[in-house]
């Protein structure tokens, strides 16, 4: 971009027009295509970046320019590239038209005597058809279907009424946003007010964000909620919570596709994308969001969300810092699932941690910190969990798994986090009756802690392993039981009713792993006094997953596995008083061969089959 009145687009075009006081001369591309020349079109680079209105490029090929104007530089050009280095079309210095006369170009091509590359040919203004071809390439909207027409009218027709949107947005910032605080509420409210005043002028990226907000909030509602009836009536068809949520989520991806989000993105784009990934992880499974998370990471780097850019107000800086923290938080899920991959490299990228400030106290003039118990407390703990999970996974991917000091150090680090969570979210060790969200936050964090305990101690919890540790087996039993009890609370407790939707994805996956870990411990030791209670806990988890199959793809895949575990445990318990080594071997051969990141690869044939109606 050029600056100053002398270099403004109007000044440049006026200067060019003053030199063309006679009949306008078409550029070469327009002459060959027999089209009317329009030198005012922006260059291809600005078109692809959606910056056509700001392009200052002026085309003068075919005219003899006055002395002093014999070279024209593209606005993106800052300096010439060293000899021998690759150069892009947007950064080359155009040769003077007098150096390579236009009249000689065609003859040189026809004779084939001069194969020298002519940059002025490359930079010729494309015809309208060529522009359409460039701007509708499928790659610009991957992985979503490309399109050439603005979908704004059709998308607006999908949105519920204004009153329903008001309700869903308010509920989002009450129940969902605190769990994954990447959207700045006051900024969203300003954008929402502007949208209500002029819906047709809305930004597609922000409209996609609104659809994701509505999609996630719907999951917190019961099937009998009156708002669902109102939204279904607007849609002119009866629909379940999951159907409506999926419909709004598809609309969000359509918005991003029409906005060409891979090449045209802003903070709203990243907010919408991160919430989409968050929803996918908690509805379909963590592995489904892995690829999109890589895209979000690169967009976050492109938007410089990890650094403090000069010239930005406090609000804009904090918005970027929250988005970067959201990227790290989502990587916590991936670090635990793909635990053989060391993600600690993300921690080496210099980044600013969001301030522990309530959203309402965040202004450009001053920020009043609230310290303990602010809205950002959960986010702070989740960022620390990402740091801790990378240390655990780095240890697991190393060669010294049985390093006793390292194992004890990681155990102590997890225990310290749990102590801090108790201080932040519990009152004298009990849930607060005045705060409806703090206990939910505590429960969510506890699922991370016990998942990390299982990862650390699983290699040593069974006598079959070469480095068996009695304390590791006990730790696996305790963490498995704790995970299953947290699963029960999310399913049953009225105070956690608004968070039950978390059971559809990652939380059910954690419960499945806890059931498998507990089963392996029970099969490997003599009958324990609590054996019957442990069996009942696994059976209850299986029953809950059976009910959740209607809304959870994860439960659809996990339920058959739990049925197999149930059959294995009950048959072993009734047939023998002591463990039987052969069965243990068969069971462990199955456990060792399971790829928990790919449900479809799990073989349910261990150790022998049983009727489907069990």
Account of the protein in words:
With 614 residues, the chain is mainly α. The protein has 3 domains: 1-78 and 119-135, no CATH class; 152-361, no CATH class; 400-601. The chain has 23 helices and 2 strands. The protein has helices at residues 9-19, 28-33, 44-48, 102-111, 119-122, 128-135, 152-158, 162-176, 185-197, 204-218, 226-235, 241-258, 267-283, 290-302, 314-337, 377-396, 404-425, 438-457, 470-492, 506-523, 531-548, 553-575, 581-592, and strands at residues 426-427, 430-431. The chain has a two-stranded antiparallel sheet with strand order 1-2. Strand 1 (426-427) and strand 2 (430-431) form a beta hairpin. The protein is globular and about 75 Å long. The protein starts with 8 loop residues before the first helix and ends in a 22-residue tail after the last helix.
> Radius of gyration from the CA trace?
30 Å
Number of domains: 3
Write out the strand line-up for the largest beta sheet, numbering strands in chain order. 1-2
Count of helical regions: 23
Percent of residues in helices:
40-55%
What is the approximate shape? globular
Mean pLDDT: 74
Strand fraction band?
under 5%
Unreliable stretches, pLDDT < 50, 5 or more residues?
A: 1-26, 58-142, 359-373, 575-582, 607-614
What are the secondary-structure elements, in order, as H or E?
HHHHHHHHHHHHHHHHHEEHHHHHH
Structural class by secondary-structure content = mainly alpha
Oligomer: single chain
Region (Disordered): 66-112
Domain Zn(2)-C6 fungal-type: 26-57
Protein name: Zn(2)-C6 fungal-type domain-containing protein
GO molecular function: DNA binding; DNA-binding transcription factor activity, RNA polymerase II-specific; zinc ion binding
């Amino acid at each position: 971009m050029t600056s100053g009145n002398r270099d403004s687009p109007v000044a440049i075009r006026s200067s060019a027009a003053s030199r063309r006081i006679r009949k306008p001369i078409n550029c070469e591309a327009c002459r060959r295509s027999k089209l009317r020349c329009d030198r005012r079109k922006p260059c291809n680079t600005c078109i692809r970046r959606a910056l056509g209105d700001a392009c200052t490029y002026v085309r003068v090929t075919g005219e003899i320019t006055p002395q002093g104007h014999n070279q024209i530089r593209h606005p993106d050009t800052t300096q010439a590239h060293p000899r021998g280095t690759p150069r892009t079309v947007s950064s080359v210095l155009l040769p003077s038209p007098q150096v390579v006369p236009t009249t000689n170009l065609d003859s040189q091509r026809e004779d084939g005597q001069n194969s020298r590359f002519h940059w002025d040919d490359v930079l010729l203004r494309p015809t309208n058809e060529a522009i359409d071809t460039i701007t509708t390439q499928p790659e610009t909207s991957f992985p979503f279907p490309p399109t050439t027409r603005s979908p704004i009218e059709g998308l607006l027709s999908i949105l519920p009424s204004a009153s329903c949107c008001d309700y869903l947005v308010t509920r989002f910032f009450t129940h969902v946003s605190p769990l994954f605080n990447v959207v700045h509420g006051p900024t969203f409210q300003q954008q929402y007010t502007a949208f209500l005043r002029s819906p047709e002028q809305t930004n597609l990226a922000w409209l996609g964000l609104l659809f994701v907000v509505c999609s996630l909030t719907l999951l917190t509602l019961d099937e009998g909620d009156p708002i669902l009836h109102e939204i279904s009536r607007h849609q002119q068809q009866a629909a379940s919570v999951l159907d409506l949520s999926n419909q709004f989520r598809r609309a969000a991806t359509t918005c991003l596709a029409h906005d060409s989000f891979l090449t045209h993105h802003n903070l709203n784009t990243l907010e919408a994308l991160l919430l989409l990934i968050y929803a996918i992880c908690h509805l379909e499974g963590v592995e489904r969001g892995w690829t999109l998370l890589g895209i979000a990471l690169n967009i976050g780097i492109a938007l410089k969300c990890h650094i403090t850019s000069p010239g930005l107000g406090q609000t804009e800086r904090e918005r970027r810092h929250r988005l970067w923290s959201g990227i790290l938080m989502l990587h916590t899920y991936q670090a635990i699932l793909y635990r053989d991959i060391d993600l600690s490299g993300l921690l080496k990228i210099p980044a600013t941690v969001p301030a522990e400030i309530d959203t309402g106290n965040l202004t450009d003039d001053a920020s009043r910190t609230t310290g303990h118990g602010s809205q950002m407390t959960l986010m702070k703990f989740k960022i620390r969990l990402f740091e801790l999970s990378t240390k655990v996974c780095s240890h697991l991917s190393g060669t010294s798994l049985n390093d006793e000091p390292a194992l004890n150090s990681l155990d102590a680090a997890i225990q310290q986090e749990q102590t801090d969570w108790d201080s932040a979210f519990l009152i004298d060790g009990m849930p607060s009756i005045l705060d409806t969200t703090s206990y939910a936050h505590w429960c969510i964090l506890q699922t991370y802690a016990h998942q990390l305990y299982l990862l650390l101690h699983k290699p040593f919890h069974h006598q079959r392993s070469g480095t068996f540790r009695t304390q590791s087996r006990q730790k696996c039993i305790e963490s498995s039981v704790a995970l299953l009890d947290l699963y029960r609370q999310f399913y049953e407790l009225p105070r956690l009713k608004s968070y039950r939707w978390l059971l559809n994805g990652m939380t059910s996956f954690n419960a499945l792993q806890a059931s498998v870990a507990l089963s392996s411990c029970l099969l490997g030791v003599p009958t324990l006094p609590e054996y019957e209670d442990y069996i009942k806990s696994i059976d209850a988890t299986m029953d809950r997953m059976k009910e959740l199959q209607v809304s959870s793809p994860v439960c659809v895949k996990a339920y058959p596995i739990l049925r197999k575990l149930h059959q294995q445990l009950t048959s072993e318990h009734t047939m023998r008083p002591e463990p039987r080594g052969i069965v243990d071997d068969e069971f462990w051969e199955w456990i060792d061969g399971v790829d928990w990141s790919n449900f479809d690869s799990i073989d349910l044939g261990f150790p022998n089959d049983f009727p489907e109606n069990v």
